[in-house]
Amino acid sequence: MPERLAEETVASADRTVPCRVVVCRDCCCGTVKVDADHAAQTARLREIAPVRISECLDVCEQANVVVVQPSTAGRAAGARPVWLGLVNDRDATEDIADWVRAGGPGVAPRPDILDLYLIEPPRRTPTPS
Length: 129
Description:
Mean pLDDT: 86
Number of helices: 4
Order of helices and strands: HEHEEHEH
Low-confidence stretches: 1-14
Helix content: 25-40%
Strand order of the largest sheet: 2-1-3-4
Shape: globular
Distance between the termini: 41 Å
Largest sheet: 4 strands, mixed
Number of strands: 4
Structural class: alpha+beta
Radius of gyration: 17 Å
């Protein structure tokens, strides 16, 4: 039995999870409150990486919010998710797509232009028990 467990651990370690993208599409992001082609943005990002549509990410003042999650290799290199806000035009979406295609956080250097969109993730406070 231990041999099988070791084989499963090696097999799961060999699996590579690609860079992923989370796109907020709730109360502000993805609505008419933000002048952007939300469907085109989501479709473009889906051409490059798996995309998850999220409910509110609690940074409404930064709509549209896109979070680029590192791949397995990026995580192994110590990368964390990168939060980008005010991603409201085609050029910003293309800059993100290019970076994700190159490997994203921890694999490819973040293009300097994306520094303009960096935001801090919201700090969540634990619910009192």
